[in-house]
Every structure is written in structure tokens, then in C-alpha cells.
Amino acid sequence: MKELVRTNDPTVIAYASALLQGEEIDCFHMDVHMSVLEGSLGVLPRRIMVADRDLFRARAVLRDNGIPCGDEG
């Protein structure tokens, strides 16, 4: 799995997930339960991960919709 998005903004996570789901790209949310450790302050970023085979297409979907994503391989 590769990291697609890392952000503190829960609306970006929700929007990106909906876009990926619309394109039938499976994604996995990481660090969702870290709010227990941080006290729900939103300090720690959350990540969206995708399978290696879907990374190129997922990045294209997010870029086309104005969501910045990491371009590291």
C-alpha cells in the first residue's frame, strides 16, 4: 500500500474517499483512532492509503478534483 493523502482536514479525507469510491478504487484510512491519544484536537494528520496498482489512477482522480496528493513513488 502507498500513501495517497496526509492531512489534518477531515473534510478532505471524506471528499477524497468519496471520489475514490466513485471510481471503484479501494482505499484504507490510517490514523483514524489517533484522536484518542491527541484528545480530539486534530493535531495528528490522517492518511489515505491505496494499493500500489491503483496509485497512479487515484492520484489522477484527486488532482482532477483539486486535492493535492503526494507524488513520491
Automatic annotation (TrEMBL):
Classification via InterPro entries: DUF2007, N-reg_PII-like_a/b
Coiled coil regions, renumbered to chain: none
UniProt domain DUF2007: residue ranges: 1-64
Protein name as annotated: Conserved domain protein
